[in-house]
Design brief:
By secondary structure, this protein is of the alpha+beta class. 27% of the residues lie in helices and 29% in strands.
Length: 128
């Protein structure tokens, strides 16, 4: 083996070993249950059911958005919240809704906020 390939193989093995050390919290899988997720002071997550018999992720996101708006109307300073639906995390943030397979991992845009605050599929609104 050449010295370069030995170094490359050893770096790949080290990177693979390190990925196993990263904490990856998975969302619980309860069929049709939309949950609000609260991070506790000790770093654990508490799952509170918001709605049952929810047919899809978009409907769960809408339930969480409605909850966020009700919190704001009651004077809550919290503007962002996290939910979970069937093994996925839902992150309701000021610029839209993101989905993630783990709590700590990458998040992917699902819905964006329009100019008037509504939620829409990315690319569905015409550019102005």
């Amino acid at each position: 083996m050449r010295p370069f390939s030995i170094v490359a193989v050893s770096l790949l093995a080290a990177a693979t070993a390190l990925t196993g050390c990263v904490k990856q919290t998975k969302a619980p899988f309860e069929s049709g249950v939309c949950m609000h997720v609260v991070e506790q002071k000790d770093g654990t997550l508490k799952y509170n059911p918001v709605a049952r018999n929810v047919p899809g992720m978009e409907q769960c996101a809408a339930e969480l958005e409605g909850m966020r708006i009700r919190f704001i109307r009651m004077g809550s300073p919290i503007r962002e919240l996290t939910g979970a639906y069937q093994g996925k995390f839902i992150f309701v943030q000021k610029d839209g809704i993101y989905l993630g397979d783990t709590y700590e991992g990458a998040r992917f845009m699902s819905l964006v906020r329009t100019g008037d605050g509504r939620l829409a599929v990315p690319g569905a609104m015409p550019a102005q």
